[in-house]
């Protein structure tokens, strides 16, 4: 909530978050709420105005701001690993990103060249087809004399 209420300060529209005319910060720090749109009774059970004012005046945590922005940019939830695990179990879907890059190309077929192996690689295909597999010699650097 403080991240959102500090947006006008970050944008340098105002010096104090509660001075921005379209923000709920003024009502949260105890100044008048002319709209009556906010449930301030609930808010005051959790926070009291001087404490929220100190929260908004406190320097921003750059790590938290970066994490919030990364979460917003990627569309991934900002949560601990244990919370993500519980959410994934409850929703029955993956919330964490998949590994980066193309998956390794492995076929799950029996390997006639190596019956104990459960995977089948390109080299195995070549051996099964009777094509000799040649290995390139290791690269040797040439040193200038």
Would you kindly provide a brief summary of this structure?
Helices cover 41% and strands 0% of the residues. The protein has 145 residues and is mainly α.
Poorly predicted residue ranges: none
The portion of residues assigned to helices is 40-55%
Whole-angstrom Rg: 29 Å
**For the report, how would you describe the main beta sheet?**
none
| Count of discrete alpha- or pi-helical segments spanning 4 or more residues | 8
**Number of beta strands:** 0
The ordered string of helix (H) and strand (E) elements is HHHHHHHH
Description of the molecule:
This protein has 145 residues and is mainly α. Among the domains are: 2-60, no CATH class; 104-133, no CATH class. The protein is 41% helix and 0% strand. The chain contains eight helices and no strands. The chain has helices at residues 2-5, 7-10, 25-28, 40-46, 49-57, 62-74, 81-91, 122-128. The longest helix has 13 residues, at 62-74. It starts with a helix and ends in a 17-residue tail after the last helix. The mean pLDDT is 78.
What order do the helices and strands come in, and which of them pair?
Layout: H1 2-5, H2 7-10, H3 25-28, H4 40-46, H5 49-57, H6 62-74, H7 81-91, H8 122-128
